[in-house]
Design brief:
Radius of gyration: 21 Å
Order of helices and strands: HHHHHHHHHHH
Mean pLDDT: 89
Distance between the termini: 79 Å
Shape: globular
Structural class: mainly alpha
Number of strands: 0
GO molecular function, one term: DNA binding
CATH topology of the largest domain: Tetracycline Repressor, domain 2
Keywords: DNA-binding
Organism: Ktedonosporobacter rubrisoli
Largest sheet: none
CATH superfamily of the largest domain: Tetracycline Repressor, domain 2
Protein name: TetR/AcrR family transcriptional regulator
Low-confidence stretches: 1-8
Length: about 230
């Protein structure tokens, strides 16, 4: 009896994963509004009734996809930022604060690069003025303690004279994410405008990421050579 239950649980988990994989591809290709449950059923090999049974409706399926991506990203973020969360002096030490910025940009860039479907979902969301995603976020009780902690470090860095005083920490954080997202989303356009340049090879992507790191570190941190002038 227990073996039969385990088999049913395995089959259910397999079916859910197959549906999520197919739905992620369909949503990335057509956006939330353009995606049809018939497309997802056909791509996954499962019936619409089973999809509705597992996820309730199309929005529930969309939420499940984003939640799966978010959980994967949170694992990486927790491992990457763990050393910073145990260091109370991050916002008061120039070297540690610079390392925080560098790590944040590299993590955001690499996470988006590893999830091309998410980039396409964001592009569809932006085209629809983020209507679906904002609807989902409105249901969440918390918008992320990690974000608030990072913003606090930025404020501390300003108080310590490490971060430029004319910058808004909240705006800077959103720009960090937006620059990573736009850089990757616009790669096909850049390749067309500058056909002689390499934009998409692994080496070119690392180069772009590191240019973003240097740009933001120099833009955010106070130039120690200018202090007192």
């Amino acid at each position: 009896m227990s073996e039969a239950r385990n088999m049913r649980a395995y089959d259910a988990a397999f079916a859910r994963a197959a549906i999520l994989n197919a739905a992620e591809e369909v949503f990335a290709s057509h956006g939330f509004d353009g995606a049809r449950m018939e497309m997802i059923a056909s791509a996954s090999g499962y019936t619409k009734s089973l999809i509705f049974h597992y996820f309730g409706d199309k929005l529930g399926l969309y939420v499940a996809i984003l939640q799966r991506i978010r959980e994967q990203a949170e694992i990486v973020q927790a491992q990457t930022f763990a050393p910073f969360f145990t260091d109370e002096a991050v916002g008061r030490d120039a070297e540690n604060f610079a390392a925080l910025i560098e790590t944040g940009i590299r993590t955001a860039f690499d996470s988006l690069l590893a999830h091309p479907h998410l980039l396409r979902l964001f592009a569809w969301e932006a085209a629809s003025r983020w209507q679906t995603l904002t609807q989902i976020l409105a249901r969440r009780e918390s918008q992320g303690k990690e974000y608030e902690q990072i913003r606090l470090w930025f404020c501390q860095a300003q108080e310590a004279g490490i971060m430029r005083s004319d910058l808004d920490p909240h705006v800077v954080l959103t720009l960090l994410l937006s620059l990573c997202q736009h850089s990757l989303t616009a790669l096909p356009l850049y390749q067309h405008i500058f056909p002689g340049e390499d934009w998409s090879s692994p080496e070119a992507l690392v180069h772009t990421r590191e240019q973003l790191v240097r740009l933001m570190v120099h833009a955010i941190l106070v130039d120690s050579s200018q202090e007192g002038t």
